[in-house]
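Quick start: load a record and inspect it. Here is Copper transport protein:
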Amino acid sequence: MMHMTFYWSKNVTLLVDSWKTNDWTGYLLTLLACLIASVFYQFLENRRIRLKLLGAGKPFPAEIQAPLLRRKLAGNGVKLAGAFLFGLSSAIGYLLMLSVMSFNGGVFVAIVVGLAIGYFFFRSEGEDSVVVDSSCACA
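Running the structure step on this input writes:
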């Protein structure tokens, strides 16, 4: 039966019946996988936002430019790449949400810490203000 409240245990079933942990090694590897997936989610969101800014032709600060995105992309290529990144990051986000819904405290902490680390390294360099400023239709 699935837990309906937070619990702290090394015994957890994550996402599928075959992903069960019964010992500390498996549990710690599961927490590491959750942390890495959370950091990767923030990385993908960073790339998606950069691609969106590039596709819109909006200027953005030099600190958020990436060598991968310096190439000129065709209009449909940007939309296709943006749709792919959106789908991939949405899928990872939903899997992270379902992992938190396992109600294991360690999984919850690992995902939140991973999201914070990913935000610190990939998304805290002014891109949020660029997105807000570039979409502002101030008269």
